[in-house]
Design brief:
mainly alpha, 506 residues, two-stranded antiparallel ribbon
């Protein structure tokens, strides 16, 4: 029955009009993903009125294609300019941008796009096969489970991130402080605003990221004397094929990133933490862990695979439960209601042509997407040939436009500059930015889930342990938190004479 429905979906998805809609959507989405501050959710929201005159299936194909394009496009500025076009592409900057500076921008872009396709394809296959079962699992997630997942994300950076775990913890705490600025939605009290009304809405994540990474990197490059030279980047089809030859050696990273991404994708807000967590695990288990952050190809593969797997998986709770798994999915959910469709389990039986047309379009959309962006890789890489002294003012202007466009407010440009200075200081002091960004993104969600859980339990922390799923995840999070403490002890124990004299069977 599932195969028959999937064939029905392909008959709908590959009609000339729907294929044309998919191509247009991917092109628009790629542009949206490249522009910092716009984002997939805003792009889908802006173009949502265009779909009102379309059949629902064609409309959702257009919106999802914009989504896929934004997922692909977010990697472009992350790798070339260290400016994440999307929140989930932040982790891609850690190794993608150093590769571009070393003349390997083409390889980084090829690896990013290919990894994105593999992660997305993995999620699509699982959605096709296990949508009903996964919907039942998602129904068991409450506030305690959501908080446990987020706690696991933070702990993975402390325990698996490498480097100094104390500095990672400090970055997380600073991120929490920044995330708490503004109005407390539970009590209605203002926090850390210091009498400034502009701080009531808090700090927008996109503005913070643009400042921390974009402006911060520019300040650092200016201090170094504009040493960045992108003219060394050579790009042709041979580079694409040579990169493809190397990628199979990272099959474990692909598999791990795809599983992490899919698991975290069908819970709200999963793409960004999935990319960070996949990167942390890849660094932990890599033979070249010391190369991470300096231009390691595996550091591009891991976050892109997880982000796209999560991005696709976010569609699942939207169509099965009516619960959007991402901000973009939330906009799409509004589209379904406007088109007269009621999201939920009954959608599979009442509108099978819509559901399976959407699932089939995921296959065609991602194939079209990876082919289109790979075709434009030479163009993207050629941007690096522009002298950095000329490119710098252009990047600053793009950053300023992206920051201003978020709320159409001049104050956001000042926030961008302040975060730029913070990013510069962090890099000079060798403090990791990734944990700060992660806490800034998930701070509000984690706090709300924690407070809802404590309200449910009347203040008892036992709720995070006596619920099976939450208890298992919380235990894993605690283990990762204490891992930096027990690892040296374990290494000393393994190197002790008593242990070394024991037979191998012991």
């Amino acid at each position: 029955m599932g195969i028959e429905n999937l064939f029905l979906g392909f008959q709908i998805a590959i009609t000339p009009f729907n294929l044309f809609i998919a191509v247009v959507g991917i092109l628009l989405g790629t542009i949206i993903g490249v522009l910092p501050g716009l984002g997939g959710a805003n792009g889908v929201a802006i173009l949502l009125p265009v779909t009102f005159t379309m059949p629902p299936t064609s409309a959702i194909i257009l919106l999802t294609s914009i989504y896929w394009g934004a997922l692909f496009g977010g990697a472009i500025t992350s790798i070339l300019f260290n400016i994440p076009g999307e929140p989930w592409s932040v982790a891609t900057t850690f190794d993608g941008y150093p590769m571009a500076r070393q003349g390997q921008g083409g390889q980084a872009l090829t690896a990013a796009f290919t990894s994105s396709f593999i992660g997305a394809f993995f999620s699509i296959v699982l959605i096709t096969l296990f949508a009903p079962l996964l919907a039942e699992i998602a129904l068991k997630f409450g506030p305690p489970e959501f908080f446990a997942i987020q706690l696991l994300t933070f702990s993975s950076f402390v325990g698996l991130g490498g480097g100094n775990p104390l500095k990672s913890l400090v970055s997380i705490l600073i991120g929490f402080i920044l995330a708490s600025v503004g109005l407390d939605i539970v009590t209605g009290q203002l926090r850390l605003t210091f009498g400034f009304t502009d701080l009531m809405k808090g700090f927008d994540f996109i503005i913070a990221v643009i400042g921390l990474f974009g402006i911060g990197e520019i300040l650092l490059s200016v201090e170094e004397g504009l040493t960045f030279q992108g003219s060394k980047t050579g790009m042709n089809l041979r580079v694409v094929f040579d990169t493809w030859k190397v990628l199979p050696r990272y099959w474990r990273t692909f598999a791990r990133g795809a599983f992490i991404g899919f698991w975290m994708g069908f819970k709200p807000g999963g793409a960004t933490p999935a990319s960070f967590m996949s990167y942390a695990f890849a660094k932990r288990f890599s033979k070249n862990a010391d190369r991470f952050g300096k231009g390691e190809l595996e550091g591009v593969v891991a976050p892109e695979t997880a982000a796209h797997a999560a991005g696709v998986a976010a569609i699942l709770p939207m169509i099965t439960l009516g619960i959007p798994g991402s901000p973009t999915a939330a906009v799409m959910l509004g589209g379904l209601i406007i088109w007269g469709l009621q999201p939920g389990p009954l959608l599979f039986t009442e509108k099978p042509d819509f559901v399976w047309g959407l699932i089939a379009s995921m296959y065609t959309g991602n194939v079209l997407g990876v082919l289109m962006v790979l075709a434009f890789v030479p163009f993207f890489a050629a941007i690096l040939r522009i002298p950095f002294a000329i490119l710098t003012p252009l990047i600053v202007v793009v950053c300023a436009i992206g920051s201003y466009a978020v709320h159409n407010s001049m104050i956001d440009i000042w926030y961008m500059l302040i975060f730029g200075v913070i990013g510069y200081v962090f890099k000079k002091l060798d403090y990791p930015l990734a944990p700060l960004v992660l806490a800034l993104v998930l701070g509000d969600l984690a706090e709300n889930a924690l407070r809802q859980s404590l309200i449910m339990s009347q203040g008892s922390l036992a709720i995070f342990f006596n619920r099976p799923i939450a208890g298992l995840i919380t235990a894993a999070a605690i283990f990762f938190f204490i891992l930096p403490v027990i690892t040296p002890w374990w290494r000393r124990l393994r190197g002790s004479p008593a242990l070394a004299s024991m037979p191998p069977e012991a």
